[in-house]
Amino acid sequence: MKLSFYPRLAWEGIRKNKRLYLPYLLTCMGMVAIHYIILFLSEMPALDRMPGSGTVGSALGMSGRIIALFAVFFLFYSHSFLMRYRKKEFGLYNILGMGKGNISKLLFWETCIITVVSLGIGLVLGVVLSKLFELGLVNMMAGQIDYEWTVFPDTMAVTAMIFTGIFLLLFFHSLCQISFSHPIELLRSENRGEKPPKANWLIGLAGVILLIIAYSIALTVESLVTAITLFFVAVALVMVATYLLFGAGSVMLCRLLQKNKRYYYQPNHFVSVSSMVYRMNRNGAGLASICILLTMVLVMLSSTASLYIGLEDVILTRCPKDINIELQMQDIKYLDNEILDRFRDRVSRILDENQVQMEAVIEYQVGNTDGILLNGSFSQDEEAMQNFNFNTASTAVLLYLVPLADYNRVMDENMTLKEGEVLIYPFCTEYTASTFQMNGGRIYQVKDVVEDWIDNRNSAMTIIPTIFVFVEDLEAFTAPDRGQNNSQEDTELRFEWIYAFDLDTSAQEQMNICHQLEQTDWMRGLEDSTIIYAGEVDGQEDERIEFYYMFGGLFYIGILLSIVFLAATVLIIYYKQIAEGYEDQKRFELMQKVGMSRRDIRRSIHSQMLTIFFLPLLMSGIHLCFAFPVIRKILLVFNLQSTGLLIATTVGCFFVFGILYTLVYKLTANVYVSIVSGVEGQ
Amino acid sequence: MSRLDVSGVKKIYTTRLGSNRVEALRNVSFSVEQGEYVAIMGESGSGKTTLLNILAALDEPTAGRVVLDGQELSKVKEKDRAAFRRDNLGFVFQEFNLLDTFTLEDNIYLPLVLAGKPYKEMKTRLQPIAAQLGISELLKKYPYEVSGGQKQRAAVARAIITNPKLVLADEPTGALDSKGTDELLRLFSGIHKEGRTILMVTHSVKAASHASRVLFIKDGEVFHQIYRGDNTSEQLYQKISDTLTMLATGGERG
User: Fold this and answer.
1) What is the DSSP string of A41-54?
2) d(CA A466, CA A639)
3) B114 touching chain A per CB within 8 A
């Protein structure tokens, strides 16, 4: 009897507060389940069978840690909300003669029940759903599906341990709260009157300033290298600014509205503005969290979705033809048709053996190196390299020198250059100077900046701006810069032969041929080592598989995390609505007595909720707009160059979210109205 | 014609399944003249609050009718009730019922704002009332910053700023200390002298002794009434006490 008293009391407490505990329990279960699933995915055997899926594996592992961290914060948030309402009950127990020791026992049992239920159901849910998520992931990565059922007891144990830890923390937290408070305080904690907040101009202003700084950073970032570093600074600033703005800024705004008597003393605005002052102050953090979560989800989803949708573009950028061969020669003199014919022959021999034809052949010679470009002067001297820092990163370039004949052939043009002229094609950058000079040598006139040139694998894979210079005679042009030393340092000019073509055969066959080409002696450096420095063969099909693994996996993780964060957002909203509903019960009851009709009340509730609800969405939309240039630049690293696609995906994501959000709004608004009118009807 | 005419009002509460019937008001009839200050007394459960809710059009009687200034309450459509209350009735509650999100000033303006009155007019209306109630200095303060008596005075200001036909007060002194009570009753007498009609429901003999007439309700019926006549408050106090004693000891109807 004595043994079962506390568990029973604890159970009753949970059961009677269904409206509060059910969402909390669901949150716990969901968190446990998703944590197990993500850890499971990062270790699943199917991943090992996919080449190049290590990125996805480690991204999943990291997501697991993110989820665990998020769970700590989020469960604390939800739990503190619960405690606010339970405290009254505990205060009553206390007054009725239960000591704080007894209440602690009660809390202990409550924690036990919650832990057992959420771990039990959560893990079962996780195990059941893990296969489904695995299939989803494998499918998205375009991998081989198997229907074997796997359970990782170790992973389950890890999840169980993490969450038991979190629940223990929560238990101690509530113990502290109980033991430091007076019974009367406990009784009243639910409806303790709060001071109307003063508008804190300083904090509000700080928020605005921080936001402006963050936005201007996002807008003015020029180079990709700086984009990534500064992006995190901007994100941190935006987060802080959002919290400040929703807390103090909105109070400030309401105060200003209140000062405007003609606006304020109108039936529609009077009630909503004044209660919003309270709302914003107390729920500023909640609203800011919603806003940040929404922004995060939107950024994550739109960027990973863009990558996934734009996958084919990316592959074509990186690997324009079915087979791409790159031979780096020991010296420019080997870029000679007679020698190159030997390699052409060997390629055709392999193709003949496989009975396939090559199509749409692209072939050109190129000399490349890198250095600093400033006002049309390309320089590689030590001083210039050492003075290079992130602020001048936009002038660090890859330089590609291509014979004009190759340009004309590949682009099917008929350009001519006079003595001392060059053509320029800038990639990921702009070229504004009218001359070109290399290492303090001869100054060439830029005849034209051409619009187009085929994508180049190397330049496409880096994030450094690239300048293509088309010259009449590659050998003559590079003569002053060649042969200063023979070591293959970074600054040395490298001479390459690019040979790319399509094949009229199946993807499987293409991969076969690609592998055969890779295995040739001259490609493996076993032969002709005096001529060839290094060689590389890239098959589009191999690339495609790898990218499906990577982008598919990333997109999937994006979706997974979005679901978690979205669910969290919904819960925060739900808790907010309940909290406000209980708060407003009395207020609206009174307003009705003073002469506010039900219709007025409903209208006022609506306008108030609409503002509060859609403010975070609006704000996250604004954040997204300003983040857009940076996201675009970062996606360029992944070779996603279609801005249109990114815009479409982002707008699409925002739109879908808007609809989802409205749905959540409708549902939770009903809860709110039913709470408010619950007393109204009595 | 009387300002308020209540005749044969009956209120029966039934539980959801209809098995249990509770008769809160059996048969209540009385009328209040223009400019009268009426106190209604009765023990807990005698039906006072039910009666007040019916008078305020917050609840409907099972039978009987309530006529305020020629307008029958049950004829007022549901959607017009709020506006009707706002325009015709002023409320003073035991727990003040000021909204803590508003300053005292805004709390007082609430019914006028709901009625869509311009700010200028509200302000001119407030000034004399605030001066009369002695809260001119407190208008910018929030309810949590002032004492109970001051809160109640703001509530009175809110009740009379609309120039209502009837001021309904529900235990207005219930949450006040003796000093606050005295002050409030003095104010009520003051606004009564201005010609306002007041109906006050109360437990307190002291509060009732300031009224011009006292009605006693017992078991859902008007059991007895006393007119002030030429009595002083002290004399009336004595009479009310006697009546209550008689009611409690179960004396016959007087």
Assistant:
1) HHH-HHHHTSTT-H
2) 14
3) yes
Determine contact, residues A195/A240, Cβ cutoff 8 Å: no
Cα–Cα distance for residue pair A546/A315, rounded to 1 Å: 10
Which chain B residues touch A195 with a CB distance below 8 Å? 142, 144
How many other CB atoms are found less than 10 A from the CB of residue B2?
16
> In the structure encoding, which two tokens stand for residue A641, read together?
């160059």
Decide if A143 contacts A57 (C-beta within 8 A).
no
CB within 8 Å of A447: residues ≥ 6 apart: A417, A418, A421, A422, A423
* Residue position matching structure tokens 């959000």: A661
What is the least distance, in Å, from the CA of A304 to any CA of chain B? Answer: 45
Closest chain B residue to A588, measured at CA: B99
Total-model pTM: 0.70
User: In chain B, whose CA is at the least distance from the CA of A680?
Assistant: B58
Scanning the structure block, which residue is given the tokens 């008596």?
B149
pLDDT at A199: 64
pLDDT at A74 over 90: no
Give the strands of the sheet with B71-72, arranged side by side.
Answer: B71-72, B63-68, B4-14, B21-32, B221-227, B213-218, B37-41, B198-202, B166-170, B89-92
Query: Cβ A267–B56 below 8 Å, yes or no?
Result: no
How far is it, in rounded angstroms, from Cα B115 to Cα B89? 13
Judge: B106–A274 Cβ closer than 8 Å, yes or no.
yes
Collapsing DSSP states into helix, strand and coil, what is residue A328? strand
Identify any residues that bridge with A324 across adjacent strands, giving them in sequence order: A500, A538
Token digits of residue A302: 């739109």
Task: List the single range of A180-194, A486-500, B14-28 with lowest mean pLDDT.
Answer: A180-194
Q: For residue B80, which residues of chain A lie inside 8 Å, CB to CB?
A: 597
Q: Which residues contact B163 (CB under 8 A, 6 or more apart)?
A: none
* A235-281 pLDDT tens trace: 788 888 888 888 777 777 788 888 888 888 887 778 778 777 776 66
Residue A36 and residue A164: Cα distance in Å, rounded? 14
Radius of gyration of chain B from its Cα atoms, rounded to whole angstroms: 18
Chain centroid, CA B240 distance in Å: 19
Q: How far is B235 from chain A (nearest CA, A)?
A: 35
C-alpha A85/C-alpha B56 separation (Å) is 33
> What is the signed CA dihedral for A520, A523, A529, A533, rounded to 10 degrees?
180
CB A184 within 8 A of CB A139: no
**H or E segment at A612?**
helix A598-637
How close, in Å, is residue B76 to chain A by CA atoms?
A: 13
What the block records as the tokens of B155 is: 């509530």
For A599, nearest residue in chain B (alpha carbons)? B79
| A/B interface, count of CB pairs below 8 Å | 76
Residue of A nearest to B95 (CA): A590
**Most confident segment among A3-7, B25-29, B45-49:** B25-29
Helix (H, G, I), strand (E, B) or coil at A31: helix
Distance between CA atoms of residues A325 and A514, nearest Å: 10
Kindly state the DSSP code that residue A442 receives in the 8-state scheme. P
Residue A316 class from Cβ within 10 Å (0-12 exposed, 13-18 middle, 19+ buried)? middle
Q: Which residue of A has its CA nearest to B79?
A: A597
Supply the DSSP symbol for A331. Answer: S
**Mapped to the 3 state alphabet, what secondary structure does B53-118 carry?**
HHHCCCCCCCEEEEEECCEEHHHCCHHHHHHHHHHHEEEECCCCCCCCCCCHHHHHHHHHHHCCCC
pLDDT at residue A474 above 90?
A: no
For residue A487, what is the DSSP state? Answer: S
Q: Which amino acid, residue B37?
A: Y
Q: Which of A265, A271, A275, A283 to mutate to test the interface with B (most CBs of B within 10 A)?
A: A265
Length of chain B: 254
- Burial string for B135-151 (b: 16+ CB within 10 Å, else e) reads beebbeebbeebebbbb
Distance from CA of A277 to the nearest CA of B (A): 8
